[in-house]
Amino acid sequence: MQTVSPYQVIKASGEKEEFSEQKIVKSMAASGLKLDTASQALDYLKRHVKPEISTNEIFEHVSGFLKENSPRDYMNYGLKRAFMRLGPSGHPFERFVGDLLEEYGYETQVSVSLGGECVTHEIDCIAVKKQETSFIECKYHNAPGTKTDVQVALYTYARFLDIEKSMKALFDNKKSYLPWVITNTKLTFDAINYAKCIGLKATSWTYPQKESLHNLIIDSGLHPVTVIDAIRGEKLQRLLERNIVTCKRLLLAIQNESVSDILTSIEIAHAQEDINLICSKNG
Questions:
Q1: For residues 147 and 145, what is the distance between their CA atoms, to the nearest angstrom?
Q2: Hey, which residues does 176 pair with through a beta bridge?
Q3: CB-based contacts of 215: which residues, under 8 Å, 6+ apart?
Q4: How confident is the model at residue 1 (pLDDT cuts 50, 70, 90)?
Q5: How many CA atoms lie within 13 A of 77 on its CB side?
Q6: Is the dihedral of CA 265, 266, 267, 269 positive or negative?
Q7: Is 118 in contact with 111 (CB distance < 8 Å)?
Q8: Which residues pair with residue 126 across a beta bridge?
Q9: Around 226, how many Cα atoms within 13 Å sit in the side-chain half-sphere?
Q10: Model pTM?
């Protein structure tokens, strides 16, 4: 007979669900933690759990344990939260997506005005690999619990159809074109089903299973600059305004001595330590 937990978890949406050790371990494993580390973190968490505990409190407890015992895992575990600090504007996320796809062999352009058959469109990112050109909608959210819904998929595809007609008229069908939506949160069930139905490529934090945004980041080693604890607030915003959105870009800027007007020598030293620890694509 299955035991019912006396504890409940309050999600970011306000919904409540039963405290599940299995689900928490699965979440930690998804961030790249090894089983023994996840088990130790769970044991630590269980010593601090209470009848009603929020997902944010769970995150803080696990993060605290990892920061003391496994700094690299700490930063990977906090990767999703790090993306929430890329806002409030969506432009840094667009720039990050462009940089990330370049790690996978694409040539990219970010924030491009492009004429369709009917109207001009603002395209977040254009990615080209061989004969295929992808027109990408980068949907950024900085509120926990928010999902990207079917409306985003609908207007991404409608925009693509207008652009595709224009491109085919210019290049006489010699190239292939692909609509693509990339988001830093989850996609709704309807958004995924619609994307599958009409051939819209969709990438969310957890979807598709082996090529999710999270997996693409971990596999490439290209991490957002927001994983670095030493840089927060106004200084972080100034870096983002200069399109320094990744650890790789920050290290290059440090080497070129082009951020000394923003960061102190101590902050630069701490940033370099974090970059060497977590960001394998560090130049």
A1: 6
A2: 132
A3: none
A4: very low
A5: 28
A6: positive
A7: no
A8: 109, 135
A9: 24
A10: 0.87
pLDDT band at 279 (very low <50, low <70, confident <90, very high): low
Tokens matching residue 221? 């080693």
pLDDT of residue 283: 46
What does each C-alpha distance from 135 to 69, 177, 224, 242, 245 come to in angstroms? 42, 8, 22, 24, 21
Task: Report the C-alpha gap between 131 and 145 in whole angstroms.
Answer: 37
Q: What is the pLDDT of residue 2?
A: 46
| pLDDT value for 34 | 86
Look up residue 283 and give its two tokens. Answer: 């130049």
Q: Quote the CA–CA distance of 2 and 95 in Å, as a whole number.
A: 48
Q: Please, what is the average pLDDT of the chain?
A: 90
Full DSSP string of 164-207 = HHHHHHHHTT-SEEEEEEEESSEEPHHHHHHHHHHT-EEE-SS-
User: Rounded distance, CA 134 to CA 53, Å?
Assistant: 42
